[in-house]
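ok so dumb question maybe but i'm new to this and my supervisor (M.) told me to 'just get the structure for Aromatic-L-amino-acid decarboxylase' and walked off. so i did the thing. is this what she meant?? sequence i used:
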Amino acid sequence: MDGEEFRLRAKEVVDYMVNYQNTMKDRDVGPSLNILKTKVADLKKFIPPSPPMEGGESFKNIMSDVDSLIVPRLLVWDHPQFFAYFATGNSYPTILADMLSDIYNNIGFSWSSGPAVTELEMIMMDWWAQATNLPTHFLFQTHGGKGGGVIQCSSSDAAFMSIVSARERALEFLQKTYSGEYIEKYQLIKKLVGYTNRESHSCVQKGANLALVRLRVLTPNDNNQITGEILERAIAQDVRRGLVPFFVSAIIGTTGTTAYDNIWEIGAVCKRNPLIWLHVDCAYAGGSFVCEEFQYLYGPLDYADSMNMNANKWMLICYDCTGHWVRDRYTYTQGLVITPVYLSNEIPGIIDYRHWQIQLSRRFRSLKLWLMFRITGVKMLREYIRNHVRLAKYFEELILRDKRFEITSEVHLALVCTRLVGDDILTQHLVAFINALGKLHVTPAKDQGQYIMRLCVNYEFATKEHIEFGWKHIQECATEVINLQKQ
Ligand code: PLP
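this is what came out, is it supposed to look like this??
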């Protein structure tokens, strides 16, 4: 494909994209029951097992396959009736930014491999931190220049990176203070123990497994919170067993119910145990920090050594874009600086983001933040978040009027957790039934051992009418499920 053909096809694709977006509401949110029933959702039947030796297929044919084979097998995450998971950011400005990133094709792993990639990212991480009122120690421009932020692909990367940095810091300390003969620092890994809430995202456990460190999963209180007392008790027990607490991953906005740990108390415990690295996962809830009223709901992040939030969840930025801020970038990266000759074109004192992440190569993702902030703006983001939270409260109000349902946890943000009164099996059947019909999509979770249905207001332009439409459908499905159960 040459440039002139690209110009033509790109215009067609942009038309296609806008039409797709405009007609989305007329489609089902999930693959239709027909596809599920007949199991034709099996692409292997339609796509040859090996690639063509000759290219040159017409673009028209390919787009026709996209429409007939791919689209019916997609879940429509931006659909007005998509209440599953959490919001998945998307917006035209950020799609344009991704297009620019693709054409620049700058793999900015170091400053010298594309200075603007690094410099814009540093500026954007400070903009983003200010827009969400993060403590100043996370900014490049303050705190004697020790802190800073990086765009990771995902919160899972952020959790893993924080664990590895905490591990390296703790091992260095243990090795230096070890009283016996010389010991190789990795022999001391078995002494380390980290902590997290049972309700934290599974990525924390995955990160600990990858980093080969012990993670103690703490049982939260009835509000799904870890308190200072719970953490302190666990630490004391482990210290008595000869272990060394080195890491806590606290959470603001659990995936199941948007519960949040007591950050005030946890922060104070970590302060008394300076070897502990406090990481705070705000993957979803972080978006709400653009509004003052939500920042103060959870408590300060002043003690946090690192935190993360996904702009590609609740900040109208298309995947991927996770912000990961650290208090001390030197400590964060010191275990990860490896410089072979082919990467030795570094300039002293300049940030090289390759040390801040697992992979070497990186996209020019800060363009998405730059375009979003300049075109959408913080005020519009606030309105978007507030609208979702208002609508979640409205959803809750509607649900409370139907005595067949109960609300299972407080609605803090845009997530409503509910279940059918009675045995778990009823709600399990309801979730399965709703998703099989494909008109609306939801996700289940467990809250204090009970099966629940999560309803997250996700649609960018959601209105009361969308909520009412969705609720009516859920009620109809509930009637079917209850009747079937009686038979
Ligand atoms: N943390 C929380 C609270 C989440 O809800 C999620 C995903 O929904 C994650 C972490 C993992 O996010 P990612 O897909 O960016 O790794």
